[in-house]
Amino acid sequence: MGYNHGDPEQAGQxxxxxxxxxxxxxxxxxxxxxxxxxxxxxESEWEDGRSWRRAATYIxxxxxxxxxxxxxxxxxxxxxxxxxxxxxxxxDELTDAVRQRDDSAVLYDEQHPYxxxxxxxxxxxxxxxxxxxxxxx
Length: 137
Hints:
Structural class: alpha/beta
Mean pLDDT: 91
Oligomer: single chain
Low-confidence stretches: none
């Protein structure tokens, strides 16, 4: 791997995020696409999961041990995962791509791209988790 898991230069930054999916195969298609668009590279694969890395941060997706109850972003716990976009054009391109995918959907479409008061894409992944892509000012 070659990455320092205790790097003080990265203090305070996200080290990794681990997501569990009820339908790993379907979720992997979504995350492979989105994380690739955001500059992450596939780091490792195993029977029940996959991980992608960009610089010092990595994201893990694995099969959930329990598929019930379904993910509820309004319940206690994680609500959404937000990423920086390189440009507003990238936000627009990703929005168009989500609209063409059958495994995700644009959220708050009637208020897009300012649903949160700033330029961003809000979408839902195959497991119902909200994913946000934030464009620069």
